[in-house]
């Protein structure tokens, strides 16, 4: 991760081999741009003090709310408002960019688990 240089998303995603473990590709203004490969279903959770933005790079990705499901494809994004309970899912592997404050833990208020990403893991 080097500020002021171009980032090749395809190469960065190719370097990720696991699922649900976001890596920080860039930081700006107190926010992280995190890259993650997803497959399966992530636990229900919320983030009390932070909005999250998910942008699909490759594949299909769902954001499930208690009252509806939003399905996204490449080039589509969604902002999950702070405090909103949600979970994410993908039937097949998808590649997603996440934009959120640097201090946000990916599992939010859910218990620490295998889904909890290491702090400040970069790519």
Write the layout of secondary structure elements.
Layout: H1 9-14, E1 23-28, E2 31-41, E3 52-58, E4 61-65, E5 69-72, E6 77-80, E7 86-101
What does this structure look like?
Strands 1, 2, 3, 4, 5, 6 and 7 form a seven-stranded antiparallel beta sheet that branches. The protein starts with 8 loop residues before the first helix and ends in a 22-residue tail after the last strand. The chain has one helix at residues 9-14, and strands at 23-28, 31-41, 52-58, 61-65, 69-72, 77-80, 86-101. It has one domain (9-101): Sandwich (Jelly Rolls). A hairpin with a 3-residue loop joins strand 4 and strand 5. The chain is mostly beta strands.
Number of E strands = 7
Would you tell me the overall average pLDDT?
94
Q: Could you give the order of the helices and strands?
A: HEEEEEEE
| Assembly state | single chain
Radius of gyration, rounded? 13 Å
């Amino acid at each position: 991760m080097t500020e002021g240089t171009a980032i090749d998303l395809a190469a960065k995603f190719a370097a990720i081999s696991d699922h649900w473990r976001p890596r920080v590709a860039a930081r700006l203004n107190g926010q992280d741009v995190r890259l993650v490969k997803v497959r399966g279903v992530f636990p229900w959770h919320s983030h009390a003090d932070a909005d999250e933005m998910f942008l699909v790079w490759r594949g299909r990705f769902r954001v499930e709310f208690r009252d509806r499901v939003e399905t996204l494809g490449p080039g589509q994004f969604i902002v999950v408002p702070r405090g909103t309970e949600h979970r994410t899912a993908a039937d097949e592997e998808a590649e997603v960019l996440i934009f959120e404050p640097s201090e946000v833990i990916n599992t939010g208020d859910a218990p620490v688990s295998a889904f909890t990403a290491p702090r400040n893991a970069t790519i």
